[in-house]
Amino acid sequence: MSGRPHILYLHGFRSSPRSFKARVVHERMARLGRAHELICPQLPASPRAAMELVLTLAERHAKLGPDNIAIVGSSLGGFYATWLAERFGCRAALVNPAVDPLMDLDQHVGVTTAWHSDEPFEFRREYIDELAALKVERITRPERYFLLAATGDEVLDYRDMLAHYAGAHQHVIEGGDHAVSAFEHYVDEVLGFCMGGSDPAN
Q1: Residue among 71, 75, 57, 41 at smallest CA distance from 150
Q2: Percent of the chain beyond pLDDT 90?
Q3: Which residues pair with 73 in a beta bridge?
Q4: Smallest Cα–Cα separation from 43: which of 54, 55, 35, 29?
Q5: What is the mean pLDDT of residues 175-195?
Q6: Strands 169-173 vs 110-113: parallel, antiparallel or unpaired
Q7: Which spans in the chain are helix H?
Q8: Paired residues of 146 in beta bridges
Q9: Edge-first strand listing for the sheet containing 145-150
Q10: pLDDT of residue 114
Q11: Nearest by Cα to 97 from 82, 77, 80, 75
Q12: 122: pLDDT confidence band, cut at 50, 70 and 90?
């Protein structure tokens, strides 16, 4: 198993490692006998705290070289994945990523609940500034990015994604939804890209 990257999965806003796509990735990695190579943390609401946690978990792999880690990010997790990919120089697969979540999340300031628990979830106004500090205006080395975007995304505009990740490997799903409900059909393509463009089973 040497030479194959660990996979870091980053969930979206108010989501968790129990989300549908996170479970699909975990199940596929488990079938490959690679579940131990998946890093899938519960991200704090604070963007700064979320990135501090992820750096703690992933930096030891990244220090071995950019091919020792790859990132899969969904929605807000895709925004985070882009910042991390630029930092590490590694591959990143983005699933309906948030390109500029500052305005979108401004309306969510306050206390709500997470999707997969009844625990209070507080998104504070200062978190908007923390997001701004993570914004990547223009990606470098677009060949290290893979975009999976659904034209039917009811939350984010897929055209913003295509423009922001211009030059990247892109797979546009006609129709679909923000959650990518048919993600089982795309997980091998996502993981294959993360593993250097090869079949994830090899």
Answers
A1: 75
A2: 78
A3: 10, 94
A4: 54
A5: 96
A6: unpaired
A7: 20-31, 47-62, 76-88, 101-106, 126-132, 158-164, 187-194
A8: 93, 169
A9: 38-39, 6-10, 69-74, 91-95, 145-150, 169-173
A10: 60
A11: 75
A12: confident
For residues 6-26, average pLDDT:
94
Quote the percentage of the chain above a pLDDT of 70. 90
How many residues comprise the chain?
202
Alpha carbons 19 and 163: distance in angstroms, whole number = 27
Of 33, 44, 83, the C-alpha closest to 62 is: 83
CA-wise closest residue to 45 among 128, 122, 118, 109: 122
Residue 128 identity (one-letter amino acid): I
Please tell me what DSSP assigns to residue 26.
H
Of 85 and 111, the one with more pLDDT: 85
DSSP state of 18: T
Mean pLDDT of 54-83: 96
The answer to whether the pTM exceeds 0.85 is: yes
What's the CA gap between 88 and 84, in Å, rounded? 6
Taking the mean position of all CA atoms in its chain, how far away is CA 20?
A: 13
